[in-house]
Ornithine carbamoyltransferase (Loigolactobacillus rennini), 1197 residues
Amino acid sequence: MAKFNDLVANIKNLDTNKMYNNDFLQTWKKNDAEISATLKTADALRDLRERNISTKVFDSGLGISIFRDNSTRTRFSFSSACNMLGLEIQDLDESKSQIAHGETVRETATMISFMADAIGIRDDMYIGKGTDYMHQVIDAVKGSNEDGILEQRPNLVDLQDDEDHPTQALADLDHIIHKYGGVENLKGKKIVMSWAYSPSYGKPLSVAQSIIALMTRFGMDVVLAHPEGYEVMPEIEDIAKKNAEKSGGKFTKTNDMKEAFNDADVIYCKSWAPFKAMQKRTDLYGKGDFDGIDKLEQELLQENSQHQDWSCTEDMMKLTKNGKALYMHPLPADITGVSAEKGEVDASVFDRYRDELYKQASYKPYVIAAMIFLSKFKNPATVLKQLEARGQERKLSEE
Amino acid sequence: MAKFNDLVANIKNLDTNKMYNNDFLQTWKKNDAEISATLKTADALRDLRERNISTKVFDSGLGISIFRDNSTRTRFSFSSACNMLGLEIQDLDESKSQIAHGETVRETATMISFMADAIGIRDDMYIGKGTDYMHQVIDAVKGSNEDGILEQRPNLVDLQDDEDHPTQALADLDHIIHKYGGVENLKGKKIVMSWAYSPSYGKPLSVAQSIIALMTRFGMDVVLAHPEGYEVMPEIEDIAKKNAEKSGGKFTKTNDMKEAFNDADVIYCKSWAPFKAMQKRTDLYGKGDFDGIDKLEQELLQENSQHQDWSCTEDMMKLTKNGKALYMHPLPADITGVSAEKGEVDASVFDRYRDELYKQASYKPYVIAAMIFLSKFKNPATVLKQLEARGQERKLSEE
Amino acid sequence: MAKFNDLVANIKNLDTNKMYNNDFLQTWKKNDAEISATLKTADALRDLRERNISTKVFDSGLGISIFRDNSTRTRFSFSSACNMLGLEIQDLDESKSQIAHGETVRETATMISFMADAIGIRDDMYIGKGTDYMHQVIDAVKGSNEDGILEQRPNLVDLQDDEDHPTQALADLDHIIHKYGGVENLKGKKIVMSWAYSPSYGKPLSVAQSIIALMTRFGMDVVLAHPEGYEVMPEIEDIAKKNAEKSGGKFTKTNDMKEAFNDADVIYCKSWAPFKAMQKRTDLYGKGDFDGIDKLEQELLQENSQHQDWSCTEDMMKLTKNGKALYMHPLPADITGVSAEKGEVDASVFDRYRDELYKQASYKPYVIAAMIFLSKFKNPATVLKQLEARGQERKLSEE
């Protein structure tokens, strides 16, 4: 309970005014207090749940999910977050809707929101498209709320766009904060965001970008490593640079995986498609040139196959600090000999860190719940105390 | 609160006995008191929600949806209605069920209803089939309840059949009642239900029919306009005629869109397929003659393309009362230059009325909730007062 | 209420310790006290619900369903069970997940379980595979809970595997117990589990096996009847034999349907595929030999068509005790002249027993709820009394 009180006291001192009745898109649009409040609120909600205290702040209401890409863990994380706050999940399955009928985003967004308090969207397939779409949804529901059409304004949670994966990166951050016993202990720690080989094509850049943009805010020594040609978006690199300067950390790039791994505290190792290729794909998609997309895919697969040595092997891990860096991955990973002949990581490395990886993932539902919570309450600290005082059991206790 | 008290007092004076433990299919099966009670209850439930008072009358229980045609807004309206009453939505996805296995409607209906309090069905594709199916479901669950198989009888809400679209028409009616400041002010107002061109084929007749059958009950001057050959069902025209006589209103038909629009107060403009063609399609469907259906489609598209001038253009709108008739549509609309090259309505007309159209749609969740509510309680007025007195917050208030 | 008190007193005297925080797979893994506690708890929960007393023991939390085969009634039964306990249903739709991405069962199971209290799985297609899969899921979530990754351990309910269909057989058992006025009255009653002709191929063996394995525990005279070649798994026959010896009942086999029906009290009549063929199919599946599977299917259909005389006809029913044996089926049935030209049962037989069949099915939601309930509470009797004392209304009562 001391822990809970500390968290609440902390949240009370953070300015969350701008989060109220607002949305959570990219982390770089949020200031440090807001990032901190999100993690503290996630921890406080988790603490309540662990003490069997209900965190239902809604007695009814909907949480809408829109997944424009397949998802298991983010889908269930969003569902879990809504459920623990008292919102019922409704998925907008675009294949069963009349959206093909030609209606606008503005219209659909309003039509599904009459009783919606939160909307979670994953749209990460085409550069610029996902973020665009989210802004269209936000403008629609905000406008419809102001015009008296919607009684409440549903607030949006970005469940992955084409640039950022905020719920992932914040769950990752919460994990390493707990690992190192406090955000202050991240200062100077070397974290490597490395590209890794996967036989599949065209994975989003957003995880890599979310990591370099977020971790540079805490004084970490952030290294981005990838083969030549696998650049991420220059705008995001700029954000990382500026964050590093401001926080007293570092942001460097290398095409040498070994150099990157050397003496690292944390290894984050994942495949992504080159930004330029993604942009080309987006252009082709815009023109409806699906043959062009297929051709591009062949080229990329060809290029991709040249870099099978970029893998988080046991040998590579030995290069890290005391050979014991924390290995991270957003999951699912392409594991050599398990889910792929050659993949992002050795099976033995993955197995050794399995529990850590699952713990890393366990923060996501709470991070999402915190984002919704902070968008709904002006005084989140007060409401958290109210919930504790209410003491409603999540599961009936045996007398 | 005065508003709420007025609504409750009103409902108290209406005889809703026959609605209790009953179903809501076509509006013409309900008497005036029942129609009125539905709208008043919808308004009262909305008022409670706007005051953050929970309308959950169920602590658990299911609301089952069966959509035999794609849907976004009706799907979410039903979900919202169930959620605000405390029922969890379960969709019967016929593609994931064993229904193809040859089981009867009677069996399926019972099997999904052990803990169901409400069932919402949309089945509007083939003349006579949708209503038939709904009656089969009703007979099944009623029988199973009487035989002691089901502990409660789920009550059915018709989310659109092949003849009527009651939740749509009642939401529309609620919208114009609010617009004109009371049902008494509808008397003498001219409302046009006009066919409009859409490039797509075979839209249900049910919206057009639901409008002429319902609006004639309130002394309105109802005009049905369509090109020759686009007749609706004669039975429904008869209902409209009788309603108009009884209510002191008018029901007229014309093949001249301009004549119809002249001096109109309300314009409802929408594509539908000719009744005779729909009946032919139903016959072909009955014979499993899918080639015949394709051929019929070609003929209809050919015929349809002759009527591109039937569109709610700016010029047409100028003919209406002061050029300012209220434009209505069930959405999504085929908008010229937006969702179709040539469509039902000019983009500028649609845009000018967008907020009104969305408000129109916003009544639907409450109308559905009211239908369920009235089927569940003998004394709806009393229960509404109970809910207000209970004062359970929908969203936790910050202290 | 006397009934409820009796049930609770009964449950109090049964040792359910091993059910706590455990899973429900095959019935033969549960001892007699555990089987009895499941049925009594199902009846007690039903009694509470019939008295409009809420059985919600969770204020939030998820119940996850995984259906690897189509399902209507089991799906809705699981949904209903979760809902009445306060868990929101989330379906893991493997086609919308990233499971194809190559992740392990261990990973998926953990990732969906952060806020899950129950998991229901149906996986009955390939011999040995379903049970295997369930054990993998159990091991995963148990391990993840012990390792501090999951705050609670979701408990698994087997919604049908390739060997057993425990929720079906227990619902069936509860039905005949109520029919005969007590489990003690089952002693000596003759129940026939007979194969029946259906034009479709490869139905699971699990219902037949679940019936012979469960009903032999209560002193019944259990007869397994099928054409030569339609043997069930020898291991399950062994279980049935041992159960019959222990309970003072009988377990016999015959290839003569008439002999089986003679003087029977209960007739359970259903198609299944021969165990050996199912094993062969499983082997072919393991090798990815889909041509082989097709060829096997043709052979089996050919063989199958030889046994159209195995049907529960009126003439067959006349052979049973006073011509009035209780006819049972897990539904949906292949009814001659209704859902198949020649099927498992005559339409007139089916119609005469329709109400009974639906009542039989009505026990399933409560049986599943009981399984979850017993996995969640150390002292189920106490909690049932707590629920009654709490007296929360399921549906708001009109004052």
